[in-house]
Write a structure and sequence with these properties.
Blueprint (H helix, E strand, L loop, with lengths): L5 E5 L3 E2 L6 H19 L3 E9 L3 H10 L3 H18 L6 E4 L3 H16 L3 E11 L4 E3 L16 E10 L5 H10 L4 E2 L1 H12 L5 E2 L1 E2 L7 E2 L2 E6 L1 H6 L1 H4 L8 H10 L4 E5 L3 H14 L8 E4 L2 E3 L2 E2 L10 H7 L2 H11 L6 E2 L2 H30 L13 H22 L3 H22 L1 H6 L3 H25 L4 H10 L36 H16 L17 H8 L2 H9 L10 H5 L3 E12 L2 E10 L4 E6 L7 H4 L3 E5 L5 E3 L2 E3 L2 E2 L1 E4 L4 E4 L11 E2 L1
Parallel strand pairs: 1-3, 1-13, 2-3, 3-4, 8-14, 13-14, 15-17
Antiparallel strand pairs: 5-6, 5-7, 7-9, 10-12, 11-12, 15-16, 18-19, 18-21, 18-27, 19-20, 21-24, 22-23, 25-26
Bound molecules: 5'-O-[(L-methionyl)-sulphamoyl]adenosine.
The site of 5'-O-[(L-methionyl)-sulphamoyl]adenosine has 19 residues, from strand 2, helix 1, helix 7 and strand 13.
């Protein structure tokens, strides 16, 4: 017997070191629209999202926030979930990598890889980028990460390795045989080139920190965070469980039909993930689909650049549907796209308030007024205009489906809104309000036909748009006198299904117009949010050290900067914004070692524990402080300063001190109360 048709779609699981922003919202909204449409197409659909909670990055962020990694993860994960609920995202499950079901499943996968001979013990010495949680080919300590430009850290440890090199041929064969495995094609070409250039075995465990899933039987090691994270796609649907219901669920839903990802994590999904699955002898996902980035003022929206926009600001002012619509309509899927409040409001007014909203309210209120709220009987006689609308509706349905299936959401919506504009024009040209004034049966029959045609076209657009704007389309659907839009079978959608005589519901506006004050309010809210501690990294730690010149420039043109430029005159003085100040990472450190530097009477070399690591710092304080007296003392460190060399010694940060008198005698900053090592100052 055939398996019931199923559709399994996933988002990446989001790191909990940062609060959600509209970049994360974008991916999740795309998946939600796909999942909702699949359900309407009769598919047994499973939509998974969740949070990625282990690894050094999260451990450090928690330390900096002064709480345990678990507490930290609980807090941010809950924020993601609450936001997804406000965004009306219909996920079927939300997996957290700290949940027992995931830990159990991950360990089962690790054991399975070991049993099949794909894991061995070796030693790794090289560079690691904590921001990307990635082993990189970078030369020497502190060398920049080739992916993000942040300084890398040297890792030297005994690790478990995965035999990635053994997978080269099989991966290339997979890409060749299944051209749709990676979409869009440009991404596929990048991946093929990467694999062709040769794969080295991958270190899949770490021993230098604790926040991760222990390797089965060797708990000194924690599993590499990317192996841990990727496994969520199978552990969430029951892999590794002994429970028969879980096993059945896994059999039913695996392999995934679509793993949706941002373009920066394609390699993990298209190289590592299929390699792990091949080694574990598990079926491979059908497609990895990569989208582009949401840009704000020309650069990728991300917390480290300080140019994020929060979905909450838009939810508070316009609601979920306008943002959902904007993200799918405005951004050409696969390419990068820009966000701005002006563009959001413009799109909202043009397509939703004036377009669909206007079509819905004028059509339904005329039916209410002229036909006592009943869908009127169209006459047998059709004008060329009526026929044209019916024909366009048929074509709209088939084009919309074809475009949506090809992930061309923007085009699909453009197609649907082509029908909205055509019907709005049809109403204007056919003047139902004038027909209503004319005496006689002919005018009445014509009025019925015009309003029936408009209402039927409205129904069709509403059904097609439901996956994208579920809340407003459900309201229009009810106003059309229909029930439960999500139960409607989209496969059956065709012209002429609107039942004559259906009693329509209460007519209410669905999209009240937004004006300039809405834009200003949103900009103001973002500005306040970004200059308050709410969105600032009290919870965040810059793991990579100093920003590059480029990102520092980009941060300066982020949302706060642009909003203030519009509302306030430029102030020509040397004051900095709170954002500028927050770029300086000040941390409490404890001096572990202090000694004089030979041949330099002012310099001391110190080793300072800053909670997450011990830094060597060279400072000009030897005349004021005896080295022995400094050991054990708590000091304030500028932790994200670019390293520099003093007398041949690398100084990895700066110690903060007051500078007194003409000769600048240093007095170290300190605390009256006891403070934990690693705490952040702000
Ligand atoms: N935890 C990993 C993923 C593990 S999946 C097994 C991770 N997390 S993340 O929090 O950094 O989220 C990455 C995803 O968020 C991106 O792949 C993308 O889907 C989404 N986005 C984050 N910022 C974005 C933009 N500015 N624009 C579009 N999408 C963005 O990587």
């Amino acid at each position: 017997m055939d398996k019931p048709a199923k559709f399994y779609i996933t988002t990446p699981i989001y790191y909990v070191n940062a609060r959600p922003h509209i970049g994360h919202t974008y991916t999740t909204v795309v998946c939600d629209a796909i999942a909702r449409r699949q359900r309407m197409m009769g598919m047994d659909t499973f939509f998974l999202t969740g949070t990625d909670e282990h690894g050094q990055k999260i451990e450090r962020s928690a330390t900096a926030a002064g709480c345990s990694p678990q507490e930290f993860a609980d807090r941010i994960s809950a924020e993601f979930r609450q936001l997804w609920d406000r965004m009306n995202l219909s996920y079927d499950d939300f997996i957290r990598t700290t949940e027992p079901r995931h830990i159990r499943g991950m360990q089962a996968l690790f054991t399975r890889l070991q049993e099949r001979g794909y894991i061995y013990k070796g030693s790794y010495s090289g560079q690691y980028c904590v921001f990307d949680e990635l082993y990189v080919d970078a030369a020497g300590p502190g060398a920049p990460c080739p992916e993000c430009g942040r300084p890398t850290e040297t890792v030297q440890e005994e690790n478990y390795f995965f035999k990635l090199s053994a997978m080269e041929e099989r991966l290339l064969k997979l890409y060749a045989e299944q051209p749709d495995f990676i979409r869009p094609e440009a991404r596929r070409n990048e991946v093929v080139a990467f694999v062709r250039s040769g794969l080295r075995d991958l270190s899949v465990s770490r021993t230098t920190f604790k926040w991760g899933i222990p390797v089965p039987g060797d708990p000194k090691h924690v599993i590499y965070v990317w192996l841990d994270a990727l496994a969520n796609y199978i552990t969430a649907i029951g892999f590794g469980s002994d429970n028969p219901a879980d096993k059945k669920k896994f059999e039913h839903y695996w392999p995934a039909d679509v793993h949706m990802v941002g373009k920066e994590i394609v390699r993990f999904h298209c190289v590592y993930w299929p390699a792990f699955l091949m080694a574990a002898e598990l079926p491979l996902p059908k497609a990895i689909v990569a989208h582009g980035w949401l840009l704000f003022e020309e650069s990728k929206m991300s917390k480290s650049r300080g140019n994020i926009v929060r979905s909450e600001t838009i939810l508070d002012n316009l609601g979920a549907d306008p943002l959902r619509y904007f993200l799918l309509r405005e951004i050409v899927f696969g390419s990068d796209g820009s966000f701005s409040f002006d563009a959001l409001v413009e799109r909202f007014n043009a397509d939703l308030a004036n377009g669909l909203g206007n079509l819905s309210s004028r059509t339904l209120s005329m039916i209410s007024r002229y036909f006592e709220g009943e869908i009127p009987y169209p006459s047998q006689e059709r004008s060329a205009d009526d026929e044209a609308i019916a024909a366009l509706a048929g074509k709209t349905i088939s084009d919309f489906h074809a475009q949506f299936e090809q992930f061309q959401f923007s085009r699909a919506l453009e197609t649907a809104w082509g029908l909205v504009s055509a019907v709005n024009k049809y109403i204007v040209e056919n003047e139902p309000w004038a027909l209503a004034e004319q005496p006689g049966q002919d005018a009445r029959a014509r009025l019925a036909t015009v309003l029936y045609t408009a209402a039927e076209a409205l129904r069709i657009v509403t059904a097609l748009a439901y996956p994208v704007i579920p809340e407003s389309t459900a309201r229009i659907w009810r106003q059309l006198g229909l029930s439960d839009i999500e139960k409607f079978d989209l496969r059956q959608l065709s012209w002429g299904q609107l039942q004559l005589g259906t009693k329509i519901g209460k007519v209410e506006p669905v999209f009240p117009r937004a004006d300039k004050s809405t834009i200003e309010r949103m900009q103001q809210m973002e500005q306040e949010r970004s200059s308050s501690t709410e969105s600032k990294p009290a919870t965040d730690v810059s793991v990579g050290g100093a920003q590059t010149g480029q990102s520092a420039r980009q941060a300066a043109t982020g949302p706060a900067a642009s909003a203030s430029a519009e509302t306030k005159p430029a102030v020509a003085d040397s004051r900095i914004t709170i954002d500028d100040f927050l770029k300086v990472e000040l941390r409490v450190g404890e001096v572990k070692v202090a000694e004089k530097v030979k041949g330099a009477d002012k310099l001391l070399r110190m080793e300072v524990d800053i909670g997450t690591e011990v830094r060597q710092i060279v400072a000009g304080i030897a005349k004021a402080y005896e080295p022995e007296k400094l050991v054990g003392r708590k000091v304030v460190i500028v932790a994200n300063l670019q390293p520099r060399k003093l007398r041949g010694l690398e100084s990895q940060g700066m110690i903060v001190a007051a500078s007194l008198g003409d000769d600048g005698t240093p007095v170290l900053a300190g605390f009256l109360e006891d403070v934990p090592v690693g705490a952040k100052l702000k």
